[in-house]
């Protein structure tokens, strides 16, 4: 722990208790705050919580502002401690600096989970607080805060979105049936149950973008929205190198926005309401796409298929997390599931579906 004053074991335990609460309430901002981080803040006076706040949807007040505003008796702030998962900002953006507001209210002590890696902050908020006479403690539950802020940190430290791979495979390791099977029965072949499919829609609402390849769109004509969950649909990201997808398909119509990656030039004349990004032949497509999505300010992407698209990100080691469903059905033949190595961090059953969460070790 990087601390600017001596910390006893009892104080460490208290700090961790309230930082845990910060992380807990910060999750209320999931899927709403980007490109801002989903921060949580708690204000404590005499071991009682006076106020709490988490980051509002983008453009609204930050967590510290909401926490301070929630305190009824502002006179107590001058004898309180503010806990926050990420260093308070020190620059003007959509809202004024949070560090200035903390100083303005004469909050004497601030406990921070992580230093903000954003080049406009990166320690400047802490310097401002210390200069004003605040006692500052940094690094409380740092690893928990890093995991919570994984999207924001990956974006600023690796200059790419946090990438989640997702697929469903049969007991015998296939993610799609053969064309022969499809022609016999054109209805969708569901590998997972309705509860697992609803969970996927929840996941979609939590990420900024959702990415699929050409074959997935041609075979399923997906909507890539959150119709089975309440929330914001992600930006649709479609790889269509040779422009095979008909303009009548869902991903090229209506809302939410679509970013189309293609080798074909001058597509802006063909598509009026779609962002076009051009791929370079013989270039590593996964790295190229990640770089361009960073330029679009997209902090997290859920990649839902197909097998070749997912495998290309695995082979280039451009992924952070994989969420894999294993259903109870078998196909005996078809498209083989992607292959990856990583650390199993969670495993659960959803009725007869097995869900494995794997982290890129």
Automatic annotation (TrEMBL):
InterPro entries: APOBEC/CMP_deaminase_Zn-bd (IPR016192), CMP_dCMP_dom (IPR002125), Cytidine_deaminase-like (IPR016193), DHFR-like_dom_sf (IPR024072), Eubact_RibD (IPR004794), RibDG_C (IPR002734), Riboflavin_Biosynth_HTPR (IPR050765). Residues 13-136 form the CMP/dCMP-type deaminase domain. Binds 1 zinc ion. Keywords: Hydrolase, Metal-binding, Multifunctional enzyme, NADP, Oxidoreductase, Riboflavin biosynthesis, Zinc. Its EC number is 3.5.4.26, 1.1.1.193. Pfam families: dCMP_cyt_deam_1, RibD_C. The keyword Zinc applies. It catalyses: 5-amino-6-(5-phospho-D-ribitylamino)uracil + NADP(+) = 5-amino-6-(5-phospho-D-ribosylamino)uracil + NADPH + H(+); 2,5-diamino-6-hydroxy-4-(5-phosphoribosylamino)-pyrimidine + H2O + H(+) = 5-amino-6-(5-phospho-D-ribosylamino)uracil + NH4(+). It comes from the Bacteria. The keyword Metal-binding applies. Converts 2,5-diamino-6-(ribosylamino)-4(3h)-pyrimidinone 5'-phosphate into 5-amino-6-(ribosylamino)-2,4(1h,3h)-pyrimidinedione 5'-phosphate. This is Riboflavin biosynthesis protein RibD. It comes from Maribacter cobaltidurans.
């Amino acid at each position: 722990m990087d601390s600017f004053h001596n910390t006893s074991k009892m104080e460490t335990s208290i700090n961790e208790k309230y930082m845990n609460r910060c992380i807990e309430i910060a999750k209320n901002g999931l899927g709403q705050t980007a490109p801002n981080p989903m921060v949580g803040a708690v204000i404590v006076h005499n071991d009682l919580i006076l106020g709490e706040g988490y980051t509002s949807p983008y453009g609204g007040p930050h967590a510290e502002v909401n926490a301070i505003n929630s305190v009824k008796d502002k006179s107590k702030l001058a004898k309180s401690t503010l806990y926050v998962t990420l260093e308070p900002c020190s620059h003007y953006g959509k809202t004024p600096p949070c560090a200035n507001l903390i100083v303005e209210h004469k909050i004497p002590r601030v406990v921070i989970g992580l230093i903000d890696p954003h080049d406009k902050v990166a320690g400047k908020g802490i310097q401002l607080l210390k200069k004003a006479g605040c006692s500052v403690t940094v690094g409380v539950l740092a690893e928990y805060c890093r995991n919570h802020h994984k999207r924001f940190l990956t974006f600023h430290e690796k200059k790419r979105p946090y990438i989640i791979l997702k697929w469903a495979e049969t007991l015998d390791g296939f993610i799609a049936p053969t064309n022969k099977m499809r022609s016999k029965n054109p209805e969708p072949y569901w590998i997972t149950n309705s509860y697992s499919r609803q969970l996927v829609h929840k996941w979609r609402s939590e990420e900024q973008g959702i990415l699929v390849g050409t074959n997935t769109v041609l075979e399923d004509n997906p909507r890539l929205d959150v119709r089975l969950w309440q929330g914001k649909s992600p930006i649709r990201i479609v790889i269509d190198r040779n422009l095979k997808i008909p303009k009548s398909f869902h991903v090229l119509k209506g809302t939410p926005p679509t970013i189309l990656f293609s080798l074909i030039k001058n597509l802006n004349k063909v598509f009026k309401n779609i962002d076009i990004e051009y791929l370079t032949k013989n270039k590593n497509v996964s790295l190229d796409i990640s770089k361009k999505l960073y330029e679009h300010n997209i902090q997290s992407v859920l990649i839902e298929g197909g097998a070749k698209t997912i495998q290309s990100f695995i082979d280039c080691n451009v992924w952070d997390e994989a969420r894999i469903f294993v259903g109870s059905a078998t196909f005996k033949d078809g498209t083989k599931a992607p292959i990856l190595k990583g650390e199993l961090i969670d495993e659960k059953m959803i009725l007869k579906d097995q869900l494995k969460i794997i982290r890129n070790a």
